[in-house]
Structure formats: structure tokens, C-alpha cells
Amino acid sequence: MAGSTPELSPRLASSLKERTKSPKDHLDQQSLLELDSLSLREILDQDSRPTLILDLDSDYLDYGDDKDGIKPIFCNAALRLHDRLLDSVTGSIVEDTVQSSGTTTYGDFRSWATGVSKFDDSKDVFPLTLLYRDMLWTGSTIRQRWRIISGNQCYNVTHLPTGTLSKGSPDEQGTVKRQKSTKAGPTSTSLRRLGEKAADVAPTIESSTLVSSTKPKAPKEHSSKSGDNSHETSSSGVSVTLSSPEFGCPDWTIAEPKGVLSEHMVFTRSVDWSATPLGPMVDWSVEFREVANLVMRNPHPAALFWGEELTMFYNEAYKNEVAGNKHPGLMGTGFSGPFSELWDGVAPIFRECARTGKSVRKENDPLPIHRYGYLEETFFSWSFVPVYGGTDRILGFYNGPFETTYQTISTRRLQTLRHLGERLAEARSVKHFWACVLEGLVENHNDVPFALLYSITDSDDADTASHSSDSTISLKSCVLEGSIGIPDGHPASPPRLDLKRSKEGFIPAFREAMRTREPTTLHARDGSLPEDLLEGIEWRGFGDPCKEAIIIPVRPTNGENIFAFLLIGINPRRAYDEDYKAFTTMLNRQLATSLASFLLFEDEVRKSRSAAEAAALQREQLSQQLELQASRMRRMTEFSPLGMYLFSPDGVLLEANERYYEMVGQERDDPREFGFLDHIADESRPVAKAIWDSMVKDFKARSEELQIKNPKVVPRDLEDEPIEYWVLASSQPEIGMDGKLRSIMGSIADISHIKWVQGLQERRLREAEETKRRQNEFIDITSHEMRNPLSAILICADDIRDSLTHHKFSDSDAKVIDDCIEAANNIALCVQHQKAIVDDILTVSKLDSNLLLIAPVPVQPVNVIQRAVSMFKPEVQAKDIDFTFCPHDSFQELGVDWVNLDPSRLLQITVNLITNAIKFTQNSEIRKIAVHIGVSAEQPELHSKNFEYVPTRGSLINITAGNEWGDGQLLYIRVKVEDTGCGLTLQEKQKLFERFAQASPRTHAQYGGSGLGLFISRQLAELHGGQIGVSSEAGVGSTFGFFIQARRVAAPRGTLTVSRQPSDENTSSASASTFPQNRTTALPIALSGLANLSAPNISPINPENYSHLHILIVEDNLVNQRVLAKQLTKAGCSVYTANNGFYCISHLSTTTFHDPSGTPLSIILMDLEMPEMDGLTCVGKIREMEQKGELNGRVPVIAVTANVRDEQVKMALGSGMDDVVRKPFQVRELLERIQSVLDRLRV
Fold first, then answer.
1. How far apart are CA 912 and CA 1012, in angstroms?
2. CB-count burial class (<10 Å; 0-12, 13-18, 19+) for 948
3. What are the b/e assignments for 1115-1132, b being 16+ CB within 10 Å?
């Protein structure tokens, strides 16, 4: 309720509208609006009266029930602060005892506070006031619901308790009762009349905030008769009781004063005032008596100067604190008496005050007073007030002095100590330190009337030393460091004194101070301060000669040795009291502390003096070097081939060397901002501006190539043809101490010929890349065109051989048939030989182009070598070669089974070595070949007695550091192939492993080959992180071996690991048939074909095994198409043909993949190079049709192509091919691949 802002009533709003006709009315309206914004709770909280609000229409309280207490919905701060009063009002503590205001109980108060008037329907409180708990309570009702109750604390004058103010304050007693005066004077009469007037009105309500909840004391009597209240008076909480003290003296000037007179009053009354200008005391005026009583009762020093003679009258405090020994003679006299020394200083003040009638006030005024046997330096803060004495003219002056001597002099001495400390902090040497001591004291003229400073030094080192090295006085001298107030050549200040034997000056006193090590006081009265030494001294301050002096032995706080003696005269106008001694002590401590700090500093300086000298020498040398270097830099700048520049942050050229102007062509006195941009080519101008903006923004250095246009500079190439003018601009921002850019400096270098060379290199690189591309394209075309007819030849040869082999002829034709079969086999061998040469050329091309990469996968290396051995099983059987496989025990010793390596490269190298071994062993008398495999954790020894590895072309590195190799143990897989062939001589071994190189010219004539096999094997071994080598003896045999890097890896999931036992070394060729053959190996078709080169498989193809296959051949070469279709048909397959991709898509729409009732189709054999629509586009279209749901299921597609590069194979597989068969191939092999793809897709 109280927190909301009430709305203006219509009447008030109308009234405000009428009053807003003038600026004043507008201000009134604003004030009323601001007043209306106040909340009721805010107003009541600011009220000092205890106030509460009741809700008369509450749904939760029934005030008709006498048991319920009052439950206010709001209590203001004045009521909440007094718990006892709050409890008595709400009924928490009910004491129904008789109250001082009558018999009002809590029940009566509750009934009044919650009741309503019976005379109207306003629901207002009745009666309007109620006296409860000695408080007058008033009530009012707002909107017939909200009852506001406020309490007012009041005091009835008839109930004021008796007693004086010493018995307690009104707050402590609760009420105050005025004590009747036994003697009624004018004041008593006035108070009585005031009380009579106050009694005629109602008791006043206290306006101050209630300060205590203490229950007031009940008055002893109460009268309801107003006629008897003539002696009563109303009072408020700030009133006091005025009384007539029993021992007080109202007027000590009357003949018979009452009360107790102080000793000073008695003395003052005893003065013969008739002998003074004031006259007898009985003749004093009433006004003067009142002022005299006021002065005498003042607890502070006070005095009266009366009449033109300024006769003096003062109180007891003035006597004790100001007059001193001048009392009692000072009483009743003027400035012509004991205070005559002050008259010259105060006479102008008295005269000015008497003339103007204005009071005068002085602060810390220096007044010399002779009150304790000597002329004393004092300071007073005082005032002179003119007194009229009831007349219209000034009769005298009231003086209220307060002595500030202690505070003023203490401040002055502290300033001296502070100034001394500041000066000592500036000392740079011991001599300077003593000078600073005197400089710090010279400003205080009063407390340092004169001063003398002697330092102690060794007698034989007076010029260099400035302090004593020990505490003894033998061989010590005192050297004068300076003086204050003592003329040069004065007997008191000899320049040098022998501390042990001399009797001049103050040496005897110095010796005594050195013995005690404490400040020593000298007195003129006892002769310790010789008066003959004081003659001729120029006394500072007041000019009075000193009677005392003090010697301070100066020694550091951290040492016992005395370094100097400081003699200071004592202020002749101040006693050497405790305050003065405290100043001396602080001065001694200041000197000791500062000297200790300085000596520590000097010691550090002394220790580092040699270092400082060395540093100074080094700085001099560095300065010379810097100057020399600066001179060199200037010469280098002038002779430098670089153009150097310095720009302002606004882009104005500040400095540049001669080379810059020659290169850029900019004018020397160019004042324009960014004038250099005019000399930059249009293409480079935005680049230059961007460089500048970035350096101004981030303050980082920049380098950029820029093209310059300068007609005077035309660079030329080797053929004297003009070329573009380019420079390399390197700029560095210079940053100031404030973090702002100061300048941009840098240099430009002519790179025109470098840019020309770069352009030439780029052109030649593009030409080389184009040549390489054409070479690869030629190799690809050659390989493609060679493989296509070879595939048809191989298939026809197989067809001829199979037909003649399985057809029955007469015995007379047997010889002819055998010759034909042998001819067919020779044709197949020639095809495979030609295919091997093409594959070797492709491999060499990959190696030259760095396109051959190592792809590690988890494999079992023993199984890889077993596959290679199994591939040669028919050939070694046909040639009657003892062929054995010998795994080493190291696999079991190291626990190696699965490793990460590239199986295709391992297989390729092994097949090449076995092929060579068969080729050179087949005609030997003893035909044995052994294949060994082992593993080791250390790299094999490269140089041994019986075997030597071929050095690598580069350094051997760890190729297994990549993430694809895993983090298993690094291993080395070793493979060796031993044969009993013809062997090699030393000269023949040196020619091995080179491109197109064979042991001798007869090797090709006798054994054939291209000379690429060992070269490729060496390259592959080094690419796999290993090496290849040979050990051979002519006529005995050869051993070719290699090692490669691998990493141990865990067996893949779902793999069955079978423990193997190493084969016996004497295993015959028959045992080779037990090796498993895995047809899903990654061995390239070329390698597998090469393995069967000498012994084609002549087992017949059973048509019943492939009668379920329906094959679509997509081939643009009609010869290859007819030959392949014929052979597949003979194998029992149903064959369809298409000349390109369009016909393939058309035929596919007639098959069961598109219509369940259509033609059956098992797989598509697709060539890649075809007109109109090639194989990659066609297979992509098929996969798109599958995604759109136009085909049922996935259509198996195998690429049959002569494009056999790895990237070409990957592209085919990425386009959607399920497998790739490389030309040339055999039909049997093709059928196996078809069946493998169908089985894989079926799974």
C-alpha cells in the first residue's frame, strides 16, 4: 500500500491546472507532483515518533477477541529500534500495573487503538489521544480502514524530580523536576514567570526522536487542579535544571561573597585595588563585576586589560599557564610593569582594536616573555575582544591566550630533521656528507645559534680518510669540516686538531664525548663551555650568546667507531628541558642512521670501483667501436648495391642512400606523401599500398616483390633483350618508447634477373613436365597397343593347344600333333616373355617418376614367401630342380607372426630372384635352389666375408615412422635365394643391379632377359628401407639376398594363427606341392604369368563348371571380342557381345537386372578404351542407374584392359569396377577371377 504512488484527485488536478499559468505556478505543480511520488512508509520512517499502522479490515485478525494483541502491518524505524516499547505496544509483554498517567492498562490501550467512534461512521479513533506508558498517543484513520497510531514522549512540569544536574540527565531520570531556589533573584523570577505562562497551555510534545525504551520513573504526586500549577513550567528533552549550587560563589566581588572562594579569588580580593586605576572594589560597576566574575570562572587562561592604562586582571589559569614568575606582581599593573617587554609587540594591536572596535585574533604569535628568570621564546594563539561595559565606548579588552610554544617549536624542529634527511640523501662522498649535515642545520637559526663539525681521521691520512678506523684516540686527528655562525680563523675552529695531545678549541670536550659515546652538554657556568672561545661568534637567531652547548659524537647505528663531532649551541631563549633533549636524541639518531646507510653505499661503491673503472674503459672502447662501426655502416650504405630508405608514418621520404634514388628514380626533395607509388608499376601499386597499410596496423616487418617503372633503368637478359624491372622490398617498422610508429625503414634489391631466371625455369619445367607427360602417354599407348594383340595371341595359342591335346588323332599324325602343341606352347611363352618386358618398362617408369609407393598392410611374411615358392612348383618339377623353402628359427625365437609391410613389393623382389635362379640353374649338373627367410630386431651386417650388400644411392632411413606403420617393434625381414648355377666372377658382379645391365654379353645370348630385373629389385628394396646384395663364385653358384623394414603388429580380428614348423633343408621338390596356394594374393597378373612362363597348365576346362555363367563382353576390338567370346563359349559360358558402352546400356535393359523375365546376365567384362562411350563412363552410368532404382541389385563388372598402371587400376576401381584383369591373360585365369568376384558379391 505504502509503496504505490497515489493518483491525483480530480479536484487537485483541476487546481493544479488553474495554477499553471505562470512559471512560479509551474514550479509549484512540479513540487506537488514530486511530493505525491513519496510513499507513506518513506514518510513515516523519517518521523522520530514511534508509529505503527493497523489494518482494521483484516481477514486474519479479529480485534473483537480480547485475547488477541495488536498486530501492526507496519512499524516505523523509531518504533523498531526500541524493543521494549514495541513489546509493550503489541502486547508481547503485558504489565497491567498502574501507570504514571493514571490507571491505563494494555487492554485499555488496545481497545482505544482498535476501536472506532460511535458518533459517526468515519471509523475514526475516539478519543483522539490517550496517555499510555507515560507517552501521549494519537490516532487517525485513512479510508475507514488504515489506523495510524503515533506516540509522543512528554514531561509534566509538576512531576519533575528534585535534584541537581549531577544526579543524571533527563534521559537517565526519565523526568526532570526543578528544584525551588531558596533565594529568588532576577533569574529566579524570570524562570517563575516563564513557568506560569507554560502552565496555561497543554503539555508540550517532545519533538526529538525517542532515544530509550527505559521506563520513566513515576512521579511522586499528581494534581489535576490547574489552578495550583502556577509554579509549573513546560520542558522539552533538551532543557536543563538551573539551580543555586551550594558551594558556588555567584559574585566574589561583593563585600560578603557567598559560597567557597578559591585561593586565587582570595588573593585577588586582597589586592589594594584603590591604588590602581580600577579603584576600590566596592566602587566597581555592576557591568565590570559581571565581567570580572566571568573571567574568574573561566577554566581557560583569561585576562582583562581595563581602562586607558590597561590595568590587568586575570584568572587562576592565566596565573599558572601564562604569568609564571610575574605573578603576583602582575595583578593590577599594566604593560609598564612586569609585561613591559611585550609592549612593543602588542601596542599596535591594542591601538587598532581601540580605534576600530573589532576583535583581533592571532595564531602562533611569537612573544618574548621574561617569566622564569630568562627571556623566553614563546608562542601564543590569542584574541583581544573590546568590552563596552554597558556603555557606548570601549572600556577595556578581554584577552584569551592559549600557549602554543610546544607545538610550534616541535614543528620547527621536525622540519629541521626532515630537511636534514633530504640533504643527507644527496651525499655522494664522506666529505659531501659532512657538508650536507651543515646544510641541513643552517636553516634553523633559533635552535642552531652556532655549530661546529669536526671529522676524525688518521693523522697520516688526513687528506684521504674521513673517519676513524677504531675507537682509540692515538694517532687520530680532528679535521674541520665546516661551521655555522663561526667566522673563519676563529680560535674555536682550528682547521686541524690532535685528538690525543691538543688542548685547543673544544678538544677536551671531544675527548670526553668520545669516552662516553653519548651526547654531552657543555655549560658556561661550570667552565666546560669556555667563554673565551665564544667571543667573536656571530650569534644567529635572537643574537643572544649561548650559555650552553651540546656535543654529539656521530657514529653509525651499525658500528662502534666515532666518525665526527657535532657541536651545536643551545637556544638561549629555551631551557634545555625534556623536549629539547628529545630533539637532540632524534638529531643524533638521524645522523647515525643516515651515516650507516651512506657508509654501506660507499662500501658498495668502493667494492665496485674497479668494476666501474673497467666498465668506463669498456664503454670508451665500445664508444670507439660504435663510432667506427657507424662510420663503416655509413660507407657500407653508400657503397651498398641495395637501395636503403627511411619513411615517416605519413609516407614522406626522410632519408635514402644514393642507390635508392638511382633504382627508383624518385626526386631527392620530394615532399609528397606516398610519392614513391608513382614509380611503381600499376600491377604492383596495390600490393605496395597493402604492405604499407598492414605495417602501420600491426607493426610487423614485410617483404614483397614489386615491379618498378624507371625509364633510366632497363635491365637486360643474356641476349641483351630488355626484361621487366623487379625489386625485393624489405621493410621494418620502427616503434617508439610510447608504442607508436616512428618510421618505416628498409631496403630494395634488384631481382630482375632472378625473376627472369625463375620465369625461364618455370617455362622449362612446364616443357619438361609436358615431355614427361608425352613420354608416359607414349608408354601407356605402346603398352596398350602391345597388350591387346598379345591377349588375342595368348588366347588363340591356348585354344590351339587345348584342341590338339584333347582331340584323338591317328598314330601316324602323333608326331605332327606334338609339333603343333609344342609350337602353341612356344607362342604362349613368347607372349609371356613380351608381357614381362612391358611390365618391367612400366615399373622402371614409375620408379623414375617417384610414383611407386610403399603401402604397408598386416601380413604373415612366411606365407608371402610360400606363395612365391608355390608359383614355381610346375616349372621346377618340369626342369627337375631340387627346390626347398627354409624358414629360419628366428621367427619362433622372437615370436614374430604378423607384421606391417608391403607384400606386393616383397613378392615382386622374391619372384625376380627365384626367376633368375631357375634361369641360371636349369642347365647345371647339380640343380638345387633354396629360399631362406628370417627376421631380426637389429639391422643385418652390411659387410661380411661371404656376403656383401650393394651400397644405397642415399642414406638408409627409417621408413616405418609414419602412422600407417603402427607403433610396434621395428623388425628386419631377411630373404635369400641360393642356387647351384653357373655363378659370377668379380668383374661380372660389379655390373649387376644396373639398368639394362647383365653379367656379360653372352648372358643375353644364352639366357635371355632385359637386364631390368635386378635393377628393379634393388630399387624396391631400398624403397622399402632395405638393401640387396650378392655372394657368388664362378662355377659353384650364387646367393642373392635382401632385407626390408617392417613393424610388429597384432593379428587381425577373425584370423586363425597356425604355428609353423620350419621345413627340412633337404625337402625335395615333391614337398613343394604341400605349400598352400592363395589365389586372392595381391600379386600382379604380370608376376603370376611370369611364374608359369615355361610350363603352361594344360589341364582341360570342364564346361559343366561354368555352364551357369551368362557373360556380356564389351570390347571395341572385334578380333579380341571374337577370340574371347569363342573361348568362353567353349568353356561352357553363355556369351553376349557389345561394341561400346551405349550398346552395353542398351543390352542391360533387356536383362533380368531390369526385367525379371528378361535375358539372364551374370557379369560384364568391359574394356576401358572404346569409342562413343568408354568403359569408365559406362560403369558410372550403371552405378547411377542402380542408385535410382532402375536396376535390381548390383551388376558385377570386371575391367579387362591393357591400361595397367597402378593409378589407372585405382581409377577403374574408383569408378565402380568390381575387379581389374590386365591384358594379356589366360581364359582359365579369367574364369577364376569371374568366379571370385561373383562369390564375393554374393557374400
1. 10
2. middle
3. bbbeebbebbbebbeebb
Determine the residue type at 469.
S
**β-strands 1163-1166, 1110-1114: how paired?**
parallel
Strand-pair partners of 1163: 1111
Q: Which of 503, 540, 546 is nearest to 524 (CA)?
A: 546
Q: Are 697 and 685 in contact (CB under 8 A)?
A: no
- CA dist list (Å): 921 to 745, 1120, 1222: 78, 37, 30
Going by C-beta distance under 8 Å and a sequence separation of 6 or more, which residues neighbour residue 874?
1092, 1095, 1097
Q: Give me the residue label for grid cell 600499376.
A: 682
DSSP strand pairing (882-887 vs 129-132) = unpaired
Are 220 and 175 spatial neighbours (Cβ–Cβ below 8 Å)? Answer: no
Q: What is the DSSP letter of 49?
A: S
- pLDDT tens per residue across span 1094-1109: 444 456 677 778 889 9
Residues 1023, 1025, 1031: CA angle, nearest 5 degrees: 95
Paired strand residues for 55 = 146
- Burial per residue of 489-512, b for 16 or more beta-carbon CB atoms within 10 angstroms, e otherwise: ebebbbeebebeebeebbbebbee
Rounded-to-integer distance, Cα 1037 and Cα 476, Å:
111
Q: The pTM is what?
A: 0.38
What is the C-alpha separation between 539 and 177, in angstroms, rounded? 69
- Rg from Cα positions in the chain: 65
Burial (Cβ within 10 Å: 0-12, 13-18, ≥19) of residue 790: buried
Q: What is the pLDDT of residues 422-441, one digit of tens each?
A: 999 888 888 999 999 999 99
- Phi, psi values for residue 343, rounded to 5°: -60, -40
- The answer to whether the beta carbons of residues 1207 and 849 sit under 8 Å apart is no
Beta strands 375-387; 396-399: pairing state = antiparallel
* DSSP-derived secondary structure for 315-333: -HHHIIIIIGGGTTTTTT-
Q: Exposed, middle or buried by CB within 10 Å (0-12, 13-18, 19+), for 715?
A: middle
Contacts of residue 889, defined as CB under 8 A and 6 or more positions apart, other chains included, come to 1062
Euclidean distance between CA atoms 1053 and 1060, whole angstroms:
20
Its sign, for the CA torsion 60, 64, 70, 72, is positive
Nearest to 932 by CA among 871, 889, 992, 993: 889
Check residue 14 and report its DSSP letter.
Answer: H
- Measured in whole angstroms, the distance separating CA 1243 from the mean position of its chain's CA atoms is 61
1156 grid coordinates: 525379371
CA 533/CA 874 separation, integer angstroms: 140
Strands (E), 60-104: 74-75
State the DSSP code for 185. -
Q: CB of 1075 within 8 A of CB of 869?
A: yes
Mean pLDDT by 10 residues, the chain (1243 residues): 45 49 65 83 88 83 65 89 84 56 75 81 81 87 89 60 37 37 36 35 35 39 41 53 81 90 92 91 90 92 92 92 89 83 86 90 91 90 90 91 93 93 89 92 93 84 44 72 90 87 84 87 89 88 91 88 92 92 92 89 79 83 87 82 91 90 88 90 92 92 91 86 91 91 92 89 85 73 68 75 72 72 68 66 64 82 89 83 92 93 88 88 89 93 80 80 89 93 79 56 45 78 89 87 94 59 37 33 34 46 83 88 87 91 92 91 91 91 92 92 80 92 84 91 82
Q: How many whole angstroms separate alpha carbon 156 and alpha carbon 236?
A: 10
- Nearest by Cα to 281 from 332, 244, 241, 327: 332
